[in-house]
Amino acid sequence: MTDLDANGHELRDGLRYPWVQAPDAGAVLKVAPGVFWLRMPLPFRLDHINLYLLRHTDGWVVVDTGMNLDQTRKVWDQVLTQVCDGLPLLAVVCTHFHSDHAGVAAWLSERFHCPVYMTTGEFQSLHVKFPADQPPGWDFLDFYRKAGVADEQSVEMFGVMSNAHFLPAPLNHYRRLQDGSVLEIGGRSWQVVVGRGHSPEHACLYAADDGLLISGDQVLPRITSTVGVHATEPLANPLHDWLGSIERLRSLPDSVLVLPAHERPFFNLHQRLDQLEAHHRAHLALMLASCDEPRTALELMAVLFTRLSGRFDELMALGETLAHANYLVAEGSLVREEHQGRYRFRCAVRGACAATPLKVF
Length: 361
Description:
By secondary structure, this protein is α/β, with parallel strands linked by helices. Helix content is 32%, strand content 23%. The protein has helices spanning 70-82, 99-102, 105-112, 120-126, 138-146, 151-161, 238-249, 269-289, 297-304, 310-330, and strands at residues 10-12, 15-17, 28-32, 35-41, 48-56, 59-63, 89-93, 116-119, 175-177, 182-185, 188-195, 202-207, 212-216, 257-260, 334-339, 342-347. Helix 5 packs across helix 6, helix 6 crosses helix 10 and helix 7 (238-249) runs antiparallel to helix 8 (269-289).
């Protein structure tokens, strides 16, 4: 039986959900005056992304777009006719570069001759692609070899990453969002709050006067956003950025209505931030406890993620594992050593240097 508060909000795991059910795939729900929640289908186990339509004067501004799929364009055709009443899109805002968020930004922009807003870090990342018509390069294979992955498995992972589903339509222009930028939309001032770790320069939109936060993937209820290290930057420390962003987001009021990219809108932002931090701290502790003997990233992945299904899950889990390992190396709790072409991680000797020197070549 669902627990409800006096306002009819569902209570679950310390969060309050104003809507017990999400709209059907392709349908919209009004969440505030001039703000509509669109449920766009995705072809994965995580079968949806939440997009937001913002009414503005004689048209609409959309936040995020869905993947570069015929199904996505079909849903947009339906929404533009039935929900937008034939009024044009005036702008597209992309919280970040991932394919489910920016997949058809270029298509919508071309259709309506409207600008696309995103941060510079996300625009640049949008153009870093793995070519689908070429085999993986030496750097890609080397990255996964060092993690303990066999080349055959790496090639299969490369096939997942170069799948057309994960390649947004090319975008040749953008208007820059920066932390603190303000977008005036529909009589509201939406301030850009940049978060990091899940992606380089993720833009959340905060309307202080109305207590609304479009959080993209930076804050999700129930599930946790991927914080991963990949072949493009093998020694990255995105978990440091992620935990720092959690602290930054604590400056926003706990009372905001969080409009996330997945699952349902919710209240109790600070409680969710506490949960997200605790999740990663628990993974860090578990990893440390598992490194009394040297371990590869692949071995540590099996400790942190006991149930995986397919190469996509492995790809994400290995990236997360490396994010936690690199964080612990940076703070001096783990040491990264190369042995027979593999990186192995072990607990640092007490009193040793606080950080592993960067090997230049």
